[in-house]
Amino acid sequence: MKRHPIKLTASIASLYLLNKFKEYAATDHFEGQNVLQGVSQTLYWILREQLGLVESSDIPFTPDEITKEKVQACLQDSGTIKTTTKIKSIEVSRIGAGEGVISMVFMCNIIYEDERDNKRLPRKVVVKLLPKGIKVRILLRITGQPSNEAGFYTSNMAVETGLPIPKPYFVGYIPGRQNFCLMMEDMSHCIGGNGNELDGLSVKHAKSALQMIAKFHGKYFNAVRKSQYEFIGRSFDSSRFDLLDGVCKDNVSSYLKLLDGWEKDGYLKKGTVTTELKSFLTHYANELIYDRMKSAKPKELGGGFNTTIIHGDFRGGNLFVNPNNDDVIFYDFQNLHESTIGDELAWFFSSIDEKTFRDNAKELLLSYYNEFILQEAVDENEYTWPRFLAEVSYGGSQLDHQILHFLQVSLYNLIPTNQQSMHNIL
User: Fold this and answer.
1) Which CATH architecture has domain 191-425?
2) What is each CA distance from 154 to 40, 62, 231, 280, in whole angstroms?
């Protein structure tokens, strides 16, 4: 039998590369991916799913998989219910979609076989899943949002910082494939979502939220790498945020039209949206945003920026307020990343009613600062009040980046089926 060395070598090389890609595809890449890598890994898993080459699981990763059998298996696996506890039936309904960050949220109403269990075990369980569209999966993969949220809920971050969150009953996640399922406590008795932004957080609740996030920030202040949470996104030395540069540039035109609409309909004072403002925002999005992210070298690495782990989408819409005891509870941790506290607070203050903030700005800022400097990692003599104010002011320049990033999804959520005008919507 005649051998063909070139063909044999090519076959061996192909098998080797295929095996290396399989290893690559089965891993999360916290350092970031370019578009080609993200697309390739996503299409690899979609192809395997379509061909039935993925292992079956007791975890519901799609809406049609939210069955009583799988919910029961997950709650038993996490210890939420005993292995002997049986679910008689469940009723599943869609209750929302993530705004700004993309997700699908469902409510499971559970009836147990044993009537005694119906009185002492969770009767309502919220299930959060990721959508299955190709574009969405690629975007989520490159930005690392599924690994962020899975990493947060399976870590000790909430406990070690005292951050109040809904009780997680179960977290299911497959690295590489990035299938995600979160089952958590029902918070429907609380005030949450966009109502906290449209109606405005009270000063009391805003101060409470600021004091709690200050403890969270203080825990990891200039010690992000020391925390050893590898899943945390970093704009300075990873590529996970590179895609957002293009997103911001693409959204500038829509953002400026949105501002014009707000001014026309009276949401902004006449004369606010000037030619100079439009020119600055266009220049900032096209020339400065990306450089700003990449130049923010942390002090932990010898740079000049105080950084910490931030929530990444800290605003009224991502807080629950319990009307019975005024507790403020945090949720939605897909955008956790390393940044400055100024970026975090600028985003939060933009979600508060403007008059409330202007009338109480110093009180709100002090509520954060006075709690922050009490944290062990913070030196009050080095991190002074003027330094804090400077960082908050600097963070304001990043606000446009966040708005431009989230604009596309926000507009999609606002547009109704009858396609009424944007002015009427707003």
Assistant:
1) Alpha-Beta Complex (3.90)
2) 27, 21, 11, 42
Which residues neighbour 309 within 8 Å (Cβ) at sequence distance 6 or greater? Answer: 157, 216, 217, 219, 220, 224, 227, 229, 232, 336, 337, 338
Going by their DSSP bridges, the two strands 168-174 and 124-129 should be labelled as: unpaired
Backbone angles phi, psi at 92, to 5 degrees: -110, 135
Q: 1: pLDDT confidence band, cut at 50, 70 and 90?
A: low
Domain range summary for the chain, segments of one domain joined by +: 24-182, 191-425
Q: Which of 289-293, 317-321, 353-357 has the lowest mean pLDDT?
A: 289-293
* Residues forming beta bridges with residue 106, ordered by sequence position: 94, 127
Residue (of 218, 400, 383, 389) closest to 293 by Cα position:
400
Q: Which amino acid is at 361?
A: A
- Check: CB of residue 172 under 8 Å from CB of residue 77: no
Residue with token string 């825990």: 219
Residue 393: CB atoms within 10 A of its CB come to: 11
Residue 239, amino acid: S
Give me the sheet containing 124-129, strands edge to edge: 87-97, 104-112, 124-129, 179-185, 168-174
Three-state SS at 314:
coil
Query: Which of 160, 407, 183, 212 shows the shortest CA–CA distance to 320?
Result: 212
Tokens matching residue 43: 């299409």
Q: What is the mean pLDDT of residues 35-64?
A: 94
DSSP 151-207: HHHHSSHHHHHT---PPEEEEEEETTTTEEEEEEE--TTSB-TTHHHHS---HHHHH
| Residue 73 confidence (pLDDT) above 90 | yes
Residues 6+ apart with CB under 8 A from 200: 316, 352, 353, 356
Output the six-digit token pair for 197.
Answer: 């932004």
CA distance 385 to 375: 15
Interior/surface letters 274-296, b for 16+ CB within 10 angstroms, e for the rest: eeeeeeebeebbeeebbeebeeb
pLDDT value of residue 2: 55
- Amino acid 68: pLDDT: 97
Q: How confident is the model at residue 9 (pLDDT cuts 50, 70, 90)?
A: confident
pTM: 0.86
Q: In whole angstroms, how large is the CA radius of gyration of the chain?
A: 24
d(CA 88, CA 232): 40
* Amino acid identity, position 59: I
Asked if pLDDT for residue 109 goes beyond 50, the answer is yes
